[in-house]
Each structure stands twice: as C-alpha cells, then as structure tokens.
Amino acid sequence: MTGDRRSRIHLSRLYSFSLVRSIFRDEHSQIGQKGYSRVVYCNDPDNPKQLQLKCSSNYVSTTKYTVLNFVPKSLFEQFRRVANIYFLLVGFASFSPLAPYSATSTLAPLLVMIAATMTKEAVEDWRRKKKDIEANNRKVEVFGRNHNFQETRWKNLRVGDLVKVYKDEYFPADLFLISSSYDDGICYVETTNLDGETNLKVKHALNATAALHDDHSFLQFKAMIKCEDPNEDLYSFIGTLFYEGQQHPLSQQQILLRDSKLRNTDCVYGVVVFTGHETKVMQNATEPPSKRSMIERKMDKVIYILFGILILISFIGSVFFGIETKNDIRDGESKRWYLRPDNPNLLYDPKRATLTAFFNFLTALMLYGYLLPISLYVSIEMVKVLQSIFINQDPDMYYEETDRPTHAQTSNLNEELGQVDTILSDKTGTLTCNSMEFVKCSIAGISYGRVMTEVERALAKRKGNVLPEGGYTSPDEYMDSGKSCKGFNFNDERVMNGKWVHESHAYVIQKFFRVLALCHTAIPDINQETGEISYEAESPDEAAFVIAARELGFQFYERMQTTISLHELDYQSGQIMDRSYKLLHVLEFSSVRKRMSVIIKNAENQLLLLCKGADSVMFERLANDGRVFEAATRDHIKHYGEAGLRTLVVAYRELSEEEFKSWEDEFLKTQTLVTADRDVLMDAASDKIERDLILLGATAVEDKLQKGVPECIEKLAYAGIRIWVITGDKMDTSINIGYACSLLREDMKQIVITLDSPEINDLEKQGDKEAIAKASGASITKQIREGKSQLNSAKESSVSFGLIIDGKSLSFALDKNLEQSFLELAINCASVICCRSTPKQKALVTRLVKMGTGKTTLAIGDGANDVGMLQEADIGVGISGVEGMQAVMSADFAIAQFRFLERLLLVHGHWCYRRISMMICYFFYKNIAFGFTLLWFEAYASFSGQPTYNDWYMSLYNVFFTSLPVIALGVFDQDVSARLCLQYPLLYQEGVHDICFSWIHILGWMLNGVISSMIIFFVTTNSVLHQAFRRDGHVVDFEVLGVMMYTCVVWTVNCQMALSIDYFTWIHHFFIWGSIAFWYGFLLVFGAVSPIISTTAYQVLVEACAPGPFYWMATLLVVVSTLLPYFSYRAFQIEFRPTYHDIIQRRGSDGSETRKKTDPAKDNFGEQETLLAK
C-alpha cells in the first residue's frame, strides 16, 4: 500500500482491529498475585526498582553445551551407552595385574572413539552457536539517554527499553506496542517462525499511546506495566498499563513477540517486556521427542547378547582354569612344575583355586572384550550424517518452483525410512496444493461454472460416463486459454464478461458477489507501476473469493478508515460504478464458529449483515422466508462435495437501527473483557445477530491435487505400504479425492462407518446426550463387527477393501473398549480415510496404529494442526507448503511435494535400511571372527588369560584395520539402482519385514564369524605345528603365530566385505585394500620401534614373516578356506533358491532394467510376494 494511504486508514471501529476506549475491569485483580508479578518501567530501564527485579538479559543461547560444561556433559552423554561403560571399566582395570594387556593399548581406542564423538558434538553445537551469535548481534534502535534513537545489539536490550523497529525487521524481544507509522496505531505482523502461519496478523496500540508517532514525542514518555510472568502461551497476554494517571488493560493485541516480523508497516515503537529466555518463543523452545529406529533398538539387544556370550565364555574358561589349577598339585607333586606352584601369586595359586578362578574370570572379561565393537556407535553416527547429506542433495527431490530441497532434520531415522508399514497423511496442503481456485458457484438455485475438475473427471470415468465434448472445460485447457488468473479458474458464458446482468435473478447475483467482495479481512495492495491490485488475505479461500468478485465485476480496491470501496457493475445500468460501504464490525471466522460476518452500512443507509460459512452452521440460521433456494443449493453443495470441492454458504440480512444499537452495546462491553472465557462470550454475542439470514447461494473452490500424487500413492501401495488419509473434509469430498489420487480404486469395496443415520439424528434433536452416546457407541460397535465379517467372508478372494469413517464415529471407535476392534478392521483394509477429524484425533489415530501394529508409522502433513500427528509417529515428514513452517519445524524430514515421498522411501529408505543392516551385521561378524580366535587359543593355553596377539594389534583392530571399509559400505553401497527400486516397489517389503536385520540374518552372520574364527585358528595352527617355518629350521614361535593369525583375520574380514558389497566405487577399493596395506605398514613401522614398546612385534615382519614363503602361502590358503563357506552358500542360494532381491539384482546386472517400462501393476506381484516370502 502507498505511504499516503497509510495515514488515512483507521480500522479502529472494527472488531478485528479494535481500538475502542480501554475499560479497566475487576478481571485484572489478579495482577500482582502469583504468576502476574512482572513490573516494567517504560523508557526507564535504569530505574533502581527495575534493576532490583533482576530480569533476564536479552542474550539467547540455544546450544547444548557451554565452554564450562562441554567436557563433563559430553562425557556423560557418551557413557550412557552400556558398551562404553564396559570399555571404561576395562580401561581402569588394565592398570591392575589382572589385565592381559597394557593400559595404554586399552584406553587408546576408547579415547579415540570418545574424542571423535565429542568432536562431532562440538561441531554441531558450534553451528548452533554461530546462529546464536548472529541473532544476538542483530541491530535495533533504542531510545538512549541523549534523547534520540541509537543502534545497539539485540543482546544489550533490557526490560523497559524503548525500541524502534522498521519494516521487514524481526522483533528483538517481546514488546508492548506503543504506536506505529499508521495514525491509528495498527501494524501487520508475520508469525511464521512462531506458529508456521504465513497470513499476516494485525496488532494495534491503545488509544492512549497511538498518537505517539515521532521520535520527539518520547522525550517525556514514562509509564509502568504490570503483567503476567514469563510463560509459553503464544495466544494470550494479561497486563495493565499505568499511564498519565489512568489504567489501561492490555491483551495479546498489544504484544509483539520476538522472532515475528514487521510487515506492510513502515515502523513501530515498543517497550521491551520480556527478554532472552523469558520471551514466549524461547519458552516454547522445547526439545522434540526422542525417536530411535527399530534397528537401533534391536541392536541394543544384540549388544546384550554379546555381553551374555562374553560373560558365559569367561565363566566357562575360569571354571576350567580353576579345575586345572587345583589339579596342579596332587600328592605333593607338581603337575605343571614350570608354572612354579611353589611360588604362588594373585593369578596362580593351586591352594586357592577358587579365588584364582575368580581373578581369571575378571581377566577373561577384559580379554574377550573385543567381541563388543567399540567403534560401532561412532561409525553408525558418522554414516547416518553422511547419508543425510546425500538425501539433502538429491536433485530428484528438489522443488525448483519454491527453491526447496529435501532436508533431513535428523539423521537418527534414516534406516527407518526403509521400514514404513503405514503412512498417515493429511489431505489439504499435503495431497493437494492448498492454493484455492474459484471454479463453481450456486446462486439463486442455479449452478454456474463449466470447468470440470480432476475429481469430476475421475468420477465420470469411474461411472463409465462419456465426458461431454462441449460446454465443459478442463482446468488446464481453461488456464491455457489465458482467461484464468491465480485463484480464479471459473468459466461460464452466462455470467462472464458482465453477462450475468441478463440473468433472471440478476439482483441475487449482484448481492452474492457483493458479499464476496465485502465479507473478508483482506488488504488491497496496488502496484504503483502497473496499477494491478493484489490482496493480502488470511487464507487462500478468502483470497479466491475476493479475486472471483473482482473478475465478475465487483473489484475491491480500497480500504479506508472505516470504509470499503468497490468498482461495481450495476445490473440495471450496465455501468461500472464506484460505491463505498461503511464497515461497522467484523465478526471473524474461527474453527468453532465456522463462519464469518461483516456489518456494513451502504449509501442508502441500510444496515446489512453479510455472512459466509459452512453449510453445517449456515442452514440452521436461515429465516423462514430466506429458504427459497435451500433445496437446490443443498443439492448443488452435495454435487460440489462429490467433485472434491470445498463449499461455503453465502447469506445476508437487513438490520434495523434499534436491533443493531442494542446488540452493539452488548458486543462492545464483551469485547473489552480480558478473561479466560472472553472468546466464548464473544461467540455468543455474535451468534445473537447472525440469525434470520436470507440465502443467496454457495461457493465452490478447488484445492488441486499436487503433481504426481496419484502415481506416488499407487507406487507406495504396490510397495505394500498401507496409506491412511486423516482429513477435516466432508465424507463425500474425501471419498472422491480418494478416487482421484488412487487411494481408492474401482475394484475396492467400501466399508463406511458413520453416525449419519435417522435414529441418531432423531436423538440429537431431542438433546439427550446420554442416550446419544449410548446409541452411537452401539451403532459403531455393530458397524465395526459387520465390517470385520465382510473381510472374513472375502478372505479367499482377491477383493480389497477401503475403510471410510467420519469424525463423530472416530471419537467412539477410539474408545478403549473399541479401539482394538477398530484397529483390526482398519489394518486389514488396503486404504483408510478418516473424515472430519480434529488435530487431536489425528494424533490419537497415529498412536493407535503405532502401538497396535508395533510396526513403523510415518505421518506427513503441512500445517500446525498436523504437529501432534508428526511427533507421535515413528517418522514425521513435513511439507513446506502454503500453511507455513510449523509442520516442517516439528518434523524429522522436510520435503516440498508429496510425490517426493516415493523416492525418499523406495530409494533412500531402501538403501539406508540395507546399508545400516549390513553394516551392523558385518560389525558383529568381524568382531566375533576376531574375538573367537582368542577363545580357541585360550582353550589350548588352559584359559590362562594369555592373549594371542600383541596389545596394539588388538587395540587398533576396530579403529584402523577394519572400520573404514564398513563406513564406505554404509554410505555408498547400492544393492540395486534407483531406477530398479522404483520399477520394482515390492522390493521395499524387505525393510517392512526386516529381512536384512532379522534374528535369522543376525545369527547367521554371527555363526559365519564363529566358523571363520575356527578355520583361521585351526588351519593356521595345524599348518605350522609339525614343520619348520624358516630355512634355518626354526619352527613358528608365539610372536609369528600371532602375526599369521592376525594377518589372516585382517585379510578375511576385508575380503568378506568385498564379497558383500553390491556396488563398488573407488572409495570402497581404497578403504578395503588400503586397510590391508595399512596393517603391513603398521607392522613395518611399529616393528622398528624399540622392543620395550613394540614387544612381540619387534622386527617380526621384516626378519621372521616376510622372508618366509610359507607365511604368504598360509595366508592365501587360510583366507580362501575361510571365505569359501560364505561364497558357496551365496552361490547356491542365488542359483537355486534366489530371493526376490536376488532376481532383481540379476535383472539389473543383465541390463534388464533397460527393457520396456512395464506398469508395476501389471507385473506378476503374486509371484513377487512368494519370492519375497522365501
């Protein structure tokens, strides 16, 4: 809007912009009591009384750590893991004589892992710190001691400071609005960062301060505010302003919250009320719910199993050692004289064998600790972060129109994306664009609008009707014709281009579009260069109505002090006329009222109430003589609903001066109240005048499906994922949207659960709530039972079912006595649609599915009303759409379009699931393969606790020699290409059934580890026991045997990785063969170190192993022998009993993916399911 027009706009007499004279009432008696003790000395922050209150500074910190607590707090986080506590205890115990190896070699790998994790935490926290620094150092103008405004940093603000904020700047703290650049003290605020809503909110100053317009007017300004203490409620504020000897009640309308932005207003003046962490946005800054994936939870169980194995073999070994020790002295003779039983010590005392066995047990616990993968947790965290980066950078999930890529806001749930069993989706803004277009209307019982919507076409196709060739236009055709504009997709020659003046009910049409042009809170914005008018509206629906009125001859172009001006097409003269209407009151829309009204006075001094709202509340408010078109309008609304359109009823009434004055007195008294039930009283006051309406017609707007939604839902359904839509729309609309987006199909039978029956309706008219509840519960119970019987009777057939239930029925179905039956019915249906659902019901349904099935649930939505559902689900996906960022901020993943969900789950979800599963299984495999070689050696050494390997061999095993290849596997491996993942969606069921991380799979890998350890130990030892190792006739000694076995372990586990990888990159090759080469390099370097440090590794490679051909031949023999069982098993399985996954892999390797693109629906999914089950 232009600057000179701002100075003329005064919206003070409107309900929504009210600046009525402040009235202090008894309701403010709570000020000064507990919870209402904040005192603010305006423009006097240095007041001694203000300083005594010790309010919070405006410095904000969102970091997890500080410089002082980083080390202790981070260490606490690390040692919450059982495995890390175990390794820490082992590290401490290594300083005792019980340790089988040195303390340095024990603590080094633990310190490396802890340091790596702490470094990651520090980097992430530093990023948060940088954002805090940026926010705390933003500039704002504050009124200083020299009586002018000077720039200062946000962090320096204090309670009581007077600040000046300019257009498009964020508010630095919670401010009391004194005045604005508008004469009447209003300003426009964008609260996207607070509640996710993009529509502008109107705030207004008190009359007492609104006149303070310029900097000089604040020279003598002093006031005091007493108000509520800091709290998290964004939508209420209770306070009192003491100014010039008068008291003025304050409400939320006078409060500007931190992190909201000033829009469409040149500047505002305000006083700081809450600072820093006392501001409402920071009071709401709670940690999101902690979510852990199913694989991570199962991994903990496997760790406990390994702990159990560790304790078991330690106990068995100590028992054998105790028995052997006790038997060392018999009849006074020493059996093993070389152990010097006559000179006992702590670790060996035949006379106290039980105590010796106990100490041996402690030693064994430390020795076999390598069964537990010390680097597992940090490796998984590293891999998940890298996986998230690849998800974020996927160009196929980037939405160019809004410049928004997909964003993984947490890396904890990557693999969970590959295990989703049920998707629970919002409709508006999620499946649809939430960009409303005016397409049809019913006026005076006549339906107008030739555009055929997507849902109508799908409906006609479903019914087998022939689409009319003429007279009806598709949305795309109409848009291509150049007649359409954003928000308006209407085409009807009877009313377009002013032809409506020739209709028989032209006067009704005039009133209808006049209501659309006047009944709103939109603000016109004229482009000074082009003269075009755009509108700032509170919702896409409202903008569509104002645009429709403009296109059909009723252009809203100016909102002044208390008037709205239109360019109107007069049906009598056929001329465009300028008309102004005096705007007296706006009765705003709310989810409870489901309607909106304005009271105006026209040039003929007629008082008119114009109203639009939902049919469920509008028809009951019609006057007896205002129902002329009711039957036809109801019929049209029904058809519009079937076409997937959102409808509103339009009506009006004339008011007498006496009725209006009487009502206005009561209304003004009610709106000045500041009580908990103020909204209820306001609704009651509004309800008294919104009666005896005269029906004009109904509007129908279309919220189009997003591009690719039907194809995406169809693909997800073929992947075996159940899809539920939970929406607030009417049942007819929801069903037809379901057909349009392929959620419901022609071959499906519908099970409809509703309380819309004559019996229930009769009881509702009688008003007996107890009888209604009893009858409703019985009805729902019966319908659920009948639905289950339908499913049972169709078990042997291939018929699928779709369940549709409305909000009233859902409230009974979610009762504890019925929820299990309802869930059993729902999960056996291919699709479920919950209509007329509240935000709370969305969350409750999500919880029921998650807890009842025990499988992974994913919720997807785009609005603030979806937050509960997103946080309740195992995975929350937010769509960054029209309704703001509230859902995105509360979600685990953010996407710009619903269709990206297909690639996020079927491609990235599948890959991440297989990668993490393989990675964890491989970790267990390599540690068991290594750890059990220690066990077999101990069996030959009487379980004495003598380690096979050098201390540093064991310490670096999990850190350098085997950890990098598994990280490469977790980040880069692709079992099948992205194209094959999408071409064969049933492949996704691998994750849903948890095939790759099932107990059979885990135990199979653990068994492979045991077998590998046995082959390595027994083949190695048996090949060297009975022959010379070197040319000089020396046999293998203890040091050489350890190096040979360790070399075989390193080669085997890395080559096993090479066999398991499906998609090789140069990184895989570098890490696998580089790890093996690093082992030899380590032997060379470490072997050259003084024998005091290197001990058994001193020159062992150069002088003992490398010169002997037997060392290299034995390594080759052992590695091939160890890998042969797994290789044979996989070869046999792929050739004779291939899994569905193996078949798809073979098709990919044979180039079959380039064959003709068949519809997955036409592929043999029955055969695929059978193969998958195998």
From TrEMBL:
Task: Supply the InterPro entries for this chain.
Answer: ATPase_P-typ_cyto_dom_N (IPR023299), ATPase_P-typ_P_site (IPR018303), ATPase_P-typ_TM_dom_sf (IPR023298), ATPase_P-typ_transduc_dom_A_sf (IPR008250), HAD-like_sf (IPR036412), HAD_sf (IPR023214), P-type_ATPase_IV (IPR006539), P-type_ATPase_N (IPR032631)
Q: Catalytic activity, per the record?
A: ATP + H2O + phospholipidSide 1 = ADP + phosphate + phospholipidSide 2
Q: Where does Mg(2+) bind?
A: 426, 428, 862, 866
Q: Where is the composition biased (Basic and acidic residues)?
A: 1147-1165
**What residues form the catalytic site here?**
426
Ranges of residues in domain P-type ATPase N-terminal: 40-106
| EC number(s) per entry | 7.6.2.1
Give the way it sits in the membrane. Answer: Multi-pass membrane protein
Q: What does this protein do?
A: Involved in transport of phospholipids.
Could you identify this protein by its name?
A: Phospholipid-transporting ATPase
